[in-house]
Amino acid sequence: MAARPRKNNVSVPNLYPLYSRKVNKVYWRYKHPVTGKFHALGTDEAEAIAIATEANARLAEQRTRQIMAISDRMATSKGKAITVSTWLDRYWKIQEERLATGDIKLNTFKQKSKPVSLLRERVGMKLLPSVDVRDIAQLLDEYVVAGQPRMAQVVRTVLVDIFKEAQHAGEVPPGHNPASATKKPRRKITHQRLSLEEWQRIFSIADANHQYMGNAMLLALVTGQRLGDISNMKFSDIWDDHLHIVQEKTGSKIAIPLSLRLNAINWSLRDVVARCRDYAVSPYLVHFFRATSQAERGAKVKSNTITMNFSKARDKAEIDWKEGTPATFHEQRSLAERLYEAQGVDTQKLLGHKSPNQTARYHDDRGKDWTQVNNN
Q: pTM for this one?
């Protein structure tokens, strides 16, 4: 027999049992805290608890939003501050508009999502001008302590922008930007640089396993471009005897002559492009030469696949990376800069950097016009 439940045994607010003597069963009901109306939830206790818990959470969230909205309306009417949460709603609409007009790129837009959610979670109920440096510093420190300084840098950059926009909108006093007052998180770079000899060892293994990997590595070294740009390269990007690249990260437009030759490996860009051609029609330079379970022949090889296979080949090469972490695919960009610089090529133009300081960092061996790269 089903025992009749005691009311004080039910720990979920607004959830009530109803015992029926006729059928000897317990029926569960949820009482709406505002309307007082009961809603039948059946005889499954676990399911009733889950539904009631979810309903309570939603009602609490709805009530919080209503209270905040009323508070904000009252504050605004009196010329006072709004909450962080209300400002973040407006800030996000600004970012959507910037994305729609091409002012920011999709990757930048996506990158802002996590910091916005994080700030809302931590200080959403605070008045916007009352957010201080300590609030932001505590938030950033969590990432630094967790060994994620790069993420801390990203979060800080977005938070600085959030308060900058708030200044423009007059929601905080001029100069009030607690995020910019925090110390910039520092990231210790431990990736080892790649030498030409090490590159050749990795290349021989990668190329033997997948021809598209050999093509990707040759393009990386001969053009000096980033992984995403290499994955996106198309044969249709070639005209006027140049390979044209719109860099995914910066939007810089580079035109590299097919005659450009990297003397250290004796490959020209024209040679590499010819190697990429396949009798199967593919628009992409780096494409699958054979059909796989994941892709058809001629399909674009995505960045993740290139990264994974580079790492496998690198590990098989059994190179001693000393105390640093093994070189990544991106390190080919630094190697290309060093080899071309020794050759006398303008590497700042080749890499698409806006300042020589950026190029200098790549040169460190560590223990709307097209910019046309000259081939001498």
A: 0.55
Q: How far are the Cα atoms of 38, 46, 54, 85, 90 from residue 26, in angstroms, in the given order?
A: 15, 12, 21, 42, 48
> Which one of the listed residues 234, 302, 330, 349 is annotated catalytic?
330
Interatomic CA distance for residues 31 and 37, integer angstroms: 6
Query: Is 362 designated active site?
Result: yes
Is 349 annotated as catalytic? no
Q: Which of 261, 300, 338, 353 is catalytic?
A: 353
DSSP state of 127: B
Catalytic pick among 212, 333, 338, 340: 333
pLDDT tens digit sequence for 70-93: 555 554 444 467 888 899 999 999
Helix, strand or coil, per DSSP, at residue 318: coil
User: Could you tell me the sign of the dihedral formed by the alpha carbons of 8, 9, 11, 13, in that order?
Assistant: negative
